[in-house]
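To whoever is on call:

I kicked off a structure prediction for a single chain this morning and the downstream step that reads the tokens threw a length-mismatch warning. I double-checked the sequence; it's 107 residues and nothing unusual in it as far as I can see. Pasting both halves so you can look.
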Amino acid sequence: MEQIWQYLIILVILIIIAIAIIKSKQKDFKLEANKLVEYLGGKDNIIHYETNKSRFIVELKDTSKVNKEGIQKIGAQGIVEIDNQLKIILGNQTQKIEKFIDALKQG
């Protein structure tokens, strides 16, 4: 019986460690979205934006303010610049980013 309790305690400890590892690997979305806005030259530099599946398409006032290297460091898989528009491949986070920027621009 004592051995079962030892196994249960070890199991609980392993579960706690696994949860801690998973949480530490998850990116803080709000922080990443703020960084993206900053790397795009700030919220005032963003004229228009939309999402299309995994792409975040943004029209900017001044593309010289963009930090493409920073955008790639936060997870962009690709960036295409055409005139004053950027198409950024961000994966499944695009809808959340669009909602975040909506709230940021309104507030």
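Update from on-call: the warning came from a stale cache, not from the record. Cleared it. Sanity check on the structure: Helices lie at 2-25, 29-39, 68-73, 94-106.
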